[in-house]
Amino acid sequence: MRLVDACRLDPVDRTPVWFMRQAGRYLPEYRAIRERYTLIEICALPEVTLEVTLQPVRRYDLDAAIIFADILLPLIPMGAGLTFAKGEGPVIANGVDSAGDVERLRPVTVEQSLAPTLEALRLVRAELAPDIALIGFAGAPFTLASYLIEGGSSRRFLRTKRFMYNEPAAFHALMEKLATVTADYVASQVAAGADVIQLFDSWVGWLGPDDYREFVLPHMPGIFAAVREAGAPSIHFGVDTGGLLGLMREAGGDVIGLDWRTSLAAGWAAIGHDRGVQGNLDPGVLFAPHDEIARRTRAILDQAAGRPGHIFNLGHGLTPETPIDSLRVVVDTVRSNGTSR
Amino acid sequence: MRLVDACRLDPVDRTPVWFMRQAGRYLPEYRAIRERYTLIEICALPEVTLEVTLQPVRRYDLDAAIIFADILLPLIPMGAGLTFAKGEGPVIANGVDSAGDVERLRPVTVEQSLAPTLEALRLVRAELAPDIALIGFAGAPFTLASYLIEGGSSRRFLRTKRFMYNEPAAFHALMEKLATVTADYVASQVAAGADVIQLFDSWVGWLGPDDYREFVLPHMPGIFAAVREAGAPSIHFGVDTGGLLGLMREAGGDVIGLDWRTSLAAGWAAIGHDRGVQGNLDPGVLFAPHDEIARRTRAILDQAAGRPGHIFNLGHGLTPETPIDSLRVVVDTVRSNGTSR
């Protein structure tokens, strides 16, 4: 598979391409499903997850499907009391505000509690063309911890930082619990058919390097080891991480995902060319005229030319307002680039 | 003045220190004023601006006062229809959505339209101890343009990027108009008594390097030249700019402000040691225990030790929830650090 080969820095005939949030609201066929099911319902019904996961792969010539799920799903069996308020994002009823709260979080038997996602992975892998990779994913411990401590989304992560600085032992205990669940979850996803795992540390870029080294780094290598032992390569992604790339490399991941704030060339140099790199078109460029989208896509491909290990992607997830034709321009540009050299 | 000397990379007896948003809601004496006046009213009344500007300088041993104002004030005489909705931030009634909208923006006679802020600068400079610097400031063109195009605050700046990519000539015309007003404004602030100018490009870190080079860089040097010709040094600040530091240096500023996402040492190296650097304590650290605040403050001072040109500050503005005693710990640590070496 082209995507797996690129993760392993093996030569490929052309750069593989997929999009973060490629299954989502920008697609009319997804919005139609969402009229009938909530987000949680889709994730609980493997047949519906299958359908939603395959939608973008039917529409575009992509090199991967990514299982439809939410990074917060593992928090439900842990006892977080997670719901999704209409238009307001996740709400956590039983958040973490003390060492006692951390202790009360329940261990998770992934094969039971996350059975629908694992079953959906089996269904997708069975349906998907053999040369298209299936990506499983999970949220990284810091990002999950921030939701638990903030009680939902956050603008500045002040509660998370206050807890981290004032209750460092409890914070580390929380990270360790989340890392254990995450390691089990990603290993189970590989066993269920995922060819590659992406770990989303979506909010870790709110930490400076010293905090990352102290509070995040110790909890990461075990997760990547679990993926490797299960037999799959891994992609490690965060946004606003330009100052953390060396530490993220140390934390793990065969491929490091870059947002668009760093040039691909500079980011890859900071990571080291013995790792792969994923990215990094600004999702905002998808609102540009088609010739400009193509030009920007080629500019990124040019920065990676002549080196194995580049996966084309956006620098962040697709937004619901994205014009659906814009993605076709990107995919066509990546595909023709490969065959023209 | 210690702050001015540091801006010019001249030796100082100890590192100067001030805080972004040091006049603001975290101070009970500021909240008392805000019970009687709106934000716009404070800015329209030089005597009230004077009071609010001096509040933090009375409470802490700071090396600078920063004039109390809002970066969006120049948009009012341009005809933007700016109001501040209660608890919702700025709202712009006459936003920019076309080349025609850009044309309709009015030129500004700064001495008239921004007279209250200029008068307040004169009052503050007359009251302030002669060794304490008075900082004037303005929003940079991209940040101002983003408010005009988005109609207020934004989470992803998609409207701004869509306009930029689809109407590049109109976008450049908008930037040029804003740069002209900004250059006049900062020069007038120096004439009115500002010893240093800080240019806030608060949201420019949402652009990748290619966009910065094409859409922002051409409009910046004129502003910094205006400050220099008026006789003051300048500080150039943005957040999420780790991947833009070399370009920001090129754009101008005697000192470049760093957020906390990049280590001070790495950021300064990227900028070049022939420029000064300001920063970069995570405002979240102000929620830590006092000994941890002191330790983190010293860690930043250590990264700058032995080099002229460091101004101690946070990596972003103070938040309203900040415990007021935390700032005293930072100030005391910076002051004692200077005298102990």
Structure description:
2 copies of one chain form a homodimer. The first copy, chain A, has a single domain, classed as TIM Barrel. Chain A contains 17 helices and 9 strands. Chain A has helices spanning 2-7, 28-36, 39-44, 46-59, 75-78, 99-104, 110-113, 115-127, 141-150, 158-166, 168-191, 209-216, 221-230, 245-251, 264-271, 290-304, 324-339; strands at 64-66, 82-85, 89-92, 133-139, 196-200, 234-237, 255-257, 276-281, 310-314. The first copy, chain A, has a 7-stranded parallel beta sheet with strand order 1-4-5-6-7-8-9. The first copy, chain A, has a two-stranded antiparallel ribbon with strand order 2-3. In chain A, β6, α14 and β7 (255-257) form a beta-alpha-beta unit. In chain A, α9 crosses α10. Chain A is globular, with a radius of gyration of 19 Å. At the A-B interface, α10, α12 and α16 of A face α10, α12 and α16 of B.
